[in-house]
Amino acid sequence: MAEKFKSGFVTLVGRPNAGKSTLINAVVGHKVAITSNTAQTTRHRFRAIVTRDDVQMIMVDTPGLHKPHDALGEELNTSAIKAMEDVDVVAFLIDASKPIGRGDEWVAAQVRAVRHARKILVISKADLVDKDTVIAQLEAARALGRWDDEVVLSSKSGFNVEGFETAVARWLPEGPKWFPDDMDTDQPFEVLVAEFIREKILRSFRDEVPHSIGVSADQIEYDRGKDMYRIYAVVYVERDSQKGIIIGRGGECIKKVGIEARHDLEQLLGCKVFLDLQVKVKKNWRRDLNQIRRFGYGEGI
């Protein structure tokens, strides 16, 4: 007798840069979530859909839980905590290469407060450390809560990503396909475009500038005759000095961002892309909840 189809929702939580988005990309098999070494890379709570022969996993990516310093940080924390409500599984990611600290303990307390969900402990980035360090990290993490499953993996190398899928599927209930087989994310198209652009800025600049960046894809047109998308997007910063940094001398910096973003977008869309990037100042937008939600960050509108 054939096994019945299983489906359900799994939320990934952890401190910033624990590897949540990278793991989602590894499970999906291609890039749907942006990644960088900058905290608050993930600002949208979105779902990635993975459909196999016998299971459909809806993985909810969340902003890294952290001590907030402004309205944006508070909104991102709220989004991550709310994402643990009404799901079947919560996966708590801990970076194998960083000592467990108060931040992990605080996240673990939020996970422990969740009811009616199975909880999986995930030790990520195992490729960065030796076996003894992984074992020590696993033992320390066990003290943070009661876990239904444990997985050690490396999303970058692909080590045991399949083991994570197996662990999630084990705890999902029988259920229907919530999404079509060929759908891999519920992100609106304009949000994906804006996020791919923001990723290139995060990877090109350091210090305070990346945190001050907001991106909106204001106009997207498809030219059937030329099989080409024309995308007009705006990069927002908080100060005039940041605008100068993003643009660069003679426009060289924003041009580099545009070239790199266009390359990714062409791979995503499977056709040529014309990308027009403007840089504008919107003072102190991270302290304005209305503006934060216009960008769709955190809980959105």
UniProtKB/TrEMBL annotation:
Q: Where is this region: G5?
A: 153-155
Locate the region G1.
14-21
Q: Which InterPro entries match?
A: G_ERA_dom, GTP-bd, GTPase_Era-like, KH_dom-like_a/b, KH_dom_type_2, KH_sf_prok-type, P-loop_NTPase, Small_GTP-bd
What are the boundaries of the region G4?
Answer: 124-127
Membrane topology term reads: Peripheral membrane protein
- The annotated region (G3) lies at 61-64
A Pfam family this chain is assigned to: MMR_HSR1
GO cellular component terms, A-Z: cytosol; plasma membrane
User: Where primarily located?
Assistant: cytoplasm
> Residues annotated as region G2?
40-44
Q: Where in the cell is it found?
A: Cytoplasm; Cell membrane
Output the SUPFAM superfamilies linked to this UniProt entry.
P-loop containing nucleoside triphosphate hydrolases (SSF52540), Prokaryotic type KH domain (KH-domain type II) (SSF54814)
Keywords in alphabetical order: Cell membrane, Cytoplasm, GTP-binding, Membrane, Nucleotide-binding, Ribosome biogenesis, RNA-binding, rRNA-binding
Which residue intervals define the domain Era-type G in the entry? 6-174
One GO MF term on file is: GTPase activity
Q: Where does GTP bind?
A: 14-21, 61-65, 124-127
Q: Which GO terms describe its biological process?
A: ribosomal small subunit assembly
Q: Which residues form the KH type-2 domain?
A: 205-283
Q: How does it assemble?
A: Monomer.
Family from the record: Belongs to the TRAFAC class TrmE-Era-EngA-EngB-Septin-like GTPase superfamily. Era GTPase family.
> Which PANTHER family does this UniProt record tie to the protein?
GTPASE ERA, GTPASE ERA, MITOCHONDRIAL
What's its job? An essential GTPase that binds both GDP and GTP, with rapid nucleotide exchange. Plays a role in 16S rRNA processing and 30S ribosomal subunit biogenesis and possibly also in cell cycle regulation and energy metabolism.
State what protein this is by name: GTPase Era
Question: Gene encoding it?
Answer: era
